[in-house]
Amino acid sequence: MSSYADGPESTDSEFDDEFGTAEKKIDELEAKLGRQMLENRELRVPLEVQQNCSNRLQEQLRVQQRQHENAKTRYEEVLARYDRRVDAQEASIVKKDDEVERLVLDLYKARRNLPIKRGYNEQLHNVVLHDMEEEVMMASLSRRSVTSSYIDVQGDGRATLTLLLCDDTHISGVMRTSDGRPYSFI
To answer: Which residue stretches, if any, does this entry annotate as coiled coil (predicted)?
Structure first.
């Protein structure tokens, strides 16, 4: 097949054939280019959609991370508040336990120094509860609160002091004089 540039031997019909073939080739290329552009556009649209989805997901992830950090911070603040409350309550309990211990010891001292009453033996003023001393100290150390106390006088005149504790137990001891003998109201 000769081209237009081949020279004067080319005829009009040959030229027309060549031109037609070239036009056909151009049409094919344009069609191919159009299809390729369409395919590229079809590929690009899902790619853009995917990029948009990816961007949205990344933004959601950043938001969730911020929310997580905020929630963690709030949780730590609440936890710190509760820790402070627990510490304050523990300090309050220790203070109250110290007060109970002081009251138990005050009661013990008061019982040791019972007032003199007309008709009682004068030595009552110097009563020492030797048998109870250790138990009263143990009660105070174990933080058991004394709720009430009473003195029980036996038929022979011997007196027993009983301390009722808040845990429904009691401590009893024979009242003794300062020289260690059982005290007698008779």
So the answer is: 54-81
Q: CA 94, 95, 98, 104: dihedral to nearest 10 degrees?
A: -120
As a whole number of angstroms, the distance between CA 152 and CA 38 comes to 111
d(CA 96, CA 33): 92
Report d(CA 97, CA 67) in Å as an integer. 44
The Cα 132–Cα 174 span in angstroms is 8
Report percent pLDDT > 90 for the chain: 3
Distance separating alpha carbons of residues 57 and 50, to the nearest angstrom: 10
The answer to whether the pTM exceeds 0.70 is no
Tokens, residue 126: 């110097």
- Which run of H or of E encompasses 41? helix 12-112
Residue 177, CA distances (Å) to 60, 75, 105, 157 in order: 85, 63, 19, 13
Domains of the chain: which residue ranges?
Answer: 8-79, 102-174
Write the pLDDT tens digit of every residue in 77-131: 888 888 888 888 888 877 877 777 777 777 766 666 655 444 444 444 334 444 4
pLDDT, residue 132, reads 52
